[in-house]
Amino acid sequence: MDSNNLTLSLFHEEDATTCLAYGIPWTILLVCYAIVILATIGGNIVVIASYVLNEFVRNTVANIFILNLSISDVLVGSIVMVVDFLTLAIGSWPFGDIFCAAWLSMHYFVIYMSVVTVIVISIDRLWLISDVLRYKRLQNHTIARGVVILVWIYTTLYTILYSVSTNDIVSPTHRRGGSEKCLIATQNTDNMLLSIILENLDFFVPIVLLVALNVTVVVKVHRKLNNPDLLNLIHNVNVCIQSAN
What is the gyration radius of the CA atoms in the chain, in angstroms? Predict the structure, then answer.
């Protein structure tokens, strides 16, 4: 084998190694991502259909919040994740500046909508566990729908402020390595304080709230399950059942 053939052979071996190292795993990741997208969209469509078609599900007030979460998650899957998948598959942003700005705004909107809705669901569960009688008396479909409307209004205002503070709409795309990327533009220093506040509202505040709410729920459930009166009631019920048998 001469030097030219050896060089060509080594080139093909290196190229094959590169394909194995990057091409096949990347394809597998894209396939897995596509499966996640389909599961996200399909699973939440099933939840929405269950709410629409099943009267028993509709009669449960808390399911209004579940419906809103499913709607926002369908939007996450069909808008955010699908476009992200296409961008990853192509290797660059192919849709231009205008759609980039719209997509970034929708990206923040639907994801933050899901986060806020999860917080609302946690508050609703905590209220139910803390004071079930007052919850049953006061919580109704009208209040729940009003809360959902407020969530949409708040999320819309948040998205507008976030887009302005990060300057997305002015300069959404950048060229890096010869290809366009739809990224957040450099933050406007004039709005730095607003950006910091919104970043905290977007990440830290929801995490702290969710942890605090769910820990409180667990503690309250644990206390109720270890309540002596409840344990005696359960014991008496079991005795009655055994006696009847």
Answer: 26
Neighbours of 65 (CB within 10 A): 21
Higher-pLDDT residue of 137 and 178 is 137
Pairwise CA distance, residues 31 & 209, whole Å: 35
Provide the sign of the torsion angle of the four alpha carbons 91, 95, 101, 107, taken in this order: negative
Q: What is the pTM of this model?
A: 0.75
**Per-domain boundaries in the chain:** 3-244
Provide the CATH topology of domain 3-244.
Rhopdopsin 7-helix transmembrane proteins (1.20.1070)
Q: Compute CA distances 1 → 50, 159, 241, whole Å.
A: 69, 65, 89
CA distance 77 to 47: 14
* CA angle at 74 for the pair 78 and 85, rounded to the nearest 5°: 30
